[in-house]
Amino acid sequence: MLLVALIMMGTARSNVQHSTFSGLLLSSGQYPKGWQPANTTKKSTKKTTKKITKKTTKKTTKKSTKNTTKKSSKSTTKKSTGATGKKNIIFKVGNLHYRIVGNNTCEVTNLVTSIRDKRVIIPSYVTHNKVKYYVIGIGKGALSREVKMTEVILPPKIQYVGPKAFLESNLETIFLPGNVKVKEWAFKDCKKLRQVIFGGKGWSFSANAFYGCTSLKTIHLNTTKSASSFRFDGANPRVICFKGDKG
Predict the structure, then answer these.
(1) CA dist., res. 219 & res. 229, Å (int)
(2) Is the dihedral of CA 104, 110, 115, 119 positive or negative?
(3) CA dihedral in degrees (170, 137, 153, 143; nearest 10)?
(4) Which terminus of the chain has a lower count of CB atoms within 10 Å, N or C?
(5) Cα separation of 194 and 192, whole Å?
(6) Distance (Å, rounded) from C-alpha 21 to C-alpha 137?
(7) pLDDT in tens, 79-115
(8) Is 7 helix (H, G, I), strand (E, B) or coil?
């Protein structure tokens, strides 16, 4: 029994000395070459791996986000340019110049050369660089002083006739379709103009649009209003009001 007790006391002393030695090493941070506590190595390895993983993930995410943004912006720019074109660009189709004024829309700006025929037909749309543009207006002074022109056929969806568009031309009759807006002095001094017809329902015109049209006899208006509701500066036509769409 005495022998067993001595052996147990010796074992306990060695354990205490070993734990004291390990504690001193851990607190001082100094270890023998080639030896480190197993738990410390695992923790430091895990922390390092996590840091590297986080940095790599952030860099990859930033790069992919930049590339995606660049690609999407480029594709959007191409689509919008192809669909609408750039405003104020002037191009030629046939004997007319056109200006881009909006998304797939344009207006007539002028004739390329003075017309030879008495009748001028404005198309509903024209194509430029493989893009279709609808003609929605006659620009300022676009067809002014065209003395050979006696008749103009306007597209059915025209929206406006600009200021002085037909100034001092030799038009004899004009049919204005749809919801057209006739701006100031649009037909000023068209001395041979005899008849004007507003065929649509949403039309409007400036009071001086027909100023100086001394031969203007009748203006047909698609309206339920009375003839006395309309004023014409510098002209004295007979106003005929009718109900029903003519164009």
Answers:
(1) 13
(2) positive
(3) 20
(4) N
(5) 6
(6) 98
(7) 434 445 578 899 999 989 999 999 999 999 998 887 6
(8) helix
